[in-house]
Amino acid sequence: MAHVLVVGLSHHSAPVEVRETIALAPEAYPDALGRLANEHEVRECVVLSTCNRSELYAVTDSYHGGRETLERALLALEGAQGRVKDEHLYRLEGAAAVRHLFRVASSLDALVVGEPQVLGQVKDAFRIAHEGEAVGPVLDRLFRQAFEVGKRVRSETEIGAYAVSVSYAAVELAKKIFGPLEGRAALIVGAGETGELTLKHLKAAGVGELFVANRTEESAIALAEAIGGRALGLGGLEAALAQVDIVVSQTGASEPVLKRPVIERAMKARHGRPLFLIDIAVPRDIEPAAGSVYNVFLYDIDDLGRVVTGNKERRAEAADQALEIVQSETARFTKWFEGLEAVPTIVALRDRFDAVRAAETARVLGRLAHLSEHDRRIVEQYGEALVNKLLHGPSAQLRHLGGGDRGVQLASALRYLFRLDEAASQEREAAPAEPDAD
To answer: Do the beta carbons of residue 94 and residue 62 sit within 8 Å?
Structure first.
């Protein structure tokens, strides 16, 4: 009986200092796949490794032997020695392994639930395994169904519709004010990490010009080069406010660096064009009164925090809907996989009955030599129909039960009662040997 297994570690089970030691670059996948595919227990395999997880998926001949093989292969990855402990690993089999992959592909198991990049990482892992001929019929169906699950979750729920980080929430709010951000300009005041990340998100959303203003000129230049923008001194701040549409401020100053009069003058120069101010500094960089100026939209860290909290709650609701999809798809795959285990028994049972039918028909016809060819064919058809009638019910029931506990028990009972394994062994021994190649 084949087993679908996954052995791995992730952000749920291992700290970053452990995960980073064995994270594989895509170019390292083929070597790891080759070593795993050569293990005698492994029929099919896929390697998935990102900054937040390293996992080995496989179809194996046995559960215990397969699990030990996957554990050994994972611990053999470069950097794992002495770092990866037993408590960091999880081992899943059967429906639990299938459900886990579907959760990963639909981003339910991601560090940030709803993160869209995860499905692409799963697709890349499958593609590399497929190109390396490490994938067979079971993992091929499993991973392709995982892609369908990921698409269904993305299209049928709102799991990815709400920003759950401060930096991304700022970008979503900017889109609500301006619509598409293509051609807009943004300014970062200060060189804080969250402000830098916000500008990177803005750039990814289509913002064109990026400016950096900072007390220390070297820091401004370094950040501007990193994000593909231009550096400004704080002296050029007011002039920049007349040009840009979005301002992200995080200086760490003890007093506001942008006060209402400065904003008012900038808005006159802007001729009323909207200005979006994101103050993520504590203490605040932008005087709260600036938010009351016409067409100025000011959000501080608490405003963004409330947006994120609300969005996390919405994503949690969407995750419940996504989980229902995962559960139903897991049941669908499991039923298909379990049905595979019934097929060999049904085939062996039919072969056994056909062998008995052929032998008994030949014996009876040997005693009825006077029959015409037409009558002899009627006798043969009678035997064939009798076998079909006798096997129809058991075959249908076995297909229905598949490889579940009850199906496995019945398949084992049939193999024992009709000595199906013994018959197959005798046929193999009786088969003529293939001639040696010249």
So the answer is: no
